TrEMBL record:
Residue intervals of the Type II secretion system protein GspF domain: 66-188, 274-389
Location in the cell: Cell inner membrane
Source organism superkingdom: Bacteria
Coiled coil ranges: none
UniProt keyword terms in alphabetical order: Cell inner membrane, Cell membrane, Membrane, Transmembrane, Transmembrane helix
Main location group: membrane
Keyword RNA-binding included in the entry's annotation: no
Topology within the bilayer: Multi-pass membrane protein
Protein name: Type II secretion system F family protein
GO cellular component entries: plasma membrane
Family assignment from sequence similarity: Belongs to the GSP F family.
Length: 399
């Protein structure tokens, strides 16, 4: 725990100062919010930490901004005053600049949804439409609370996916590093043993040739891989056709396909449930929820289903064509359609899918780890065995 000093405002708008114990600044801010204090400055008592440039605004920052707005609006603070309080926060220049821009737009009389729409990289269509409905119906506090919960889930979902892949990636890195070390340092040291031998076994020739090739061209290999990684990174939101095809191929790999379907099912049903709860019609809700789906193939099927619904086709018949809805979930939709209340059905499907996703990621990780360890053992062990056989062949020639 560390001691932080803070300056902020209470619900009455009065400035308050003090000190609080917390693990870090984020926790200190959360603890202050629980005390109904919105902090505009938090710093360690011993002095400020060193900053190495301002970080980008990420989903965690948008979640935090959304939850703070929900709390302020729920306690009667006007949206312009709430944005003004948040714009005074220090510590994240880019988030502060974003909030200040929103405040200026609102002060000019622009609807909040239009102000948010100036930042499509941070606020998607689902977010904007829910805010627009909240403004029209006077339910912005509830809408922001729902959006904060949805953003929290998305962040946790991303963390689970990254967490499931972290250990396998470490194993893969160790495997590659071990092979590179052998070909760059071990094999060259042994190559002198084979000088003067007229005939060498084919596996020894292959080992020496591979080592020589790696030493000559590995720089180009790594440069090419780095260029590919940079190209993927720089493609950003406007993904070119080649990146879309690459992502689609990766998503269809055995083992990953089931996780992709579960993830998109959660995204779609959560978005649809939020839309219906906000009072949006079913055809609009399905269309907007489909826009929340990342996988292009699945999204296209859902958009086609939405077109069919607009033409008068039954909801269950249209959605049953999507991989997101097996027979069990189609049956649940039929029950909801007959009762005229689909919101709890979408909520139930999303909830069940979250449980399935947790189980699937656990199984996937448990299966992938030993497979990668086996792969590493075969590759590294194979190279070591070839080295040993090569050394033994030289000794045989000596005798």
């Amino acid at each position: 725990m560390a001691l932080f000093s803070y300056r902020g405002y209470d619900l009455s708008g009065n400035e308050v100062k003090g000190e609080i114990d917390a693990k870090d600044k984020a926790l200190a801010s959360t603890l202050l919010l629980e005390q109904q204090i919105t902090a505009v400055e938090i710093k360690p008592v011993a002095g400020e930490g060193i900053s190495f440039g301002s970080k980008k605004v990420n989903i965690e920052d948008i979640e935090f901004l959304t939850s703070e707005l929900a709390m302020l609006l729920a306690n009667g603070v006007r949206i312009d005053r709430g944005l003004g309080i948040l714009a005074k926060k220090k510590g994240h220049p880019k988030l502060t600049a974003l909030t200040q821009s929103l405040l200026e737009s609102v002060k000019r009389g622009e609807p909040l949804a239009d102000a948010l729409g100036q930042f499509p990289e941070h606020f998607d269509e689902l977010y904007l439409n829910l805010v627009r409905v909240g403004e029209a119906s006077g339910t912005l506090p509830t809408v922001f609370d729902q959006l904060a919960a949805d953003l929290k889930f998305r962040r946790q979902l991303n963390q689970k996916v990254k967490g499931a892949l972290t250990y396998p990636m470490v194993i893969l890195f160790v495997c590659v590093a071990s092979v590179m070390f052998i070909f760059n340092f071990v094999v060259p040291q042994l190559s002198g043993m084979f000088d003067g031998n007229a005939e060498l076994p084919s596996y020894t020739v292959a080992l020496l040739s591979t080592s020589e090739w790696m030493q000559q061209y590995q720089g180009f290999l790594f440069a090419g891989l780095a260029a590919i990684a940079i190209a993927i990174k720089m493609s950003g939101q406007n993904k070119p056709q080649w990146r879309l095809k690459l992502e689609q191929r990766i998503a269809n790999l055995p083992g990953l396909r089931a996780l992709v379907v579960l993830t998109e099912r959660i995204r779609f049903n959560t978005a649809a449930q939020m839309m219906l709860r906000a009072g949006i019609s079913i055809d609009q809700a399905i269309g907007l929820a489909a826009g929340n789906v990342k996988n292009r193939e699945i999204r296209q099927v859902l958009l086609s289903a939405n077109d069919a619904i607009k033409k008068g086709h039954p909801l269950t018949e249209s959605l049953s064509k999507s991989v997101l809805y097996p027979d069990l979930y189609v049956s649940l939709l039929e029950v909801g359609a007959e009762s005229g209340d689909l919101e709890p059905v979408f909520k139930e499907i999303a909830s069940r899918s979250r449980e399935e996703f947790d189980t699937a990621t656990t199984r996937f990780t448990a299966l992938l780890e030993p497979l990668l360890i086996l792969f590493m053992s075969v590759i590294v062990g194979g190279v070591v065995i070839v080295m040993m056989l090569s050394i033994m062949s030289v000794n045989d020639v000596g005798f």
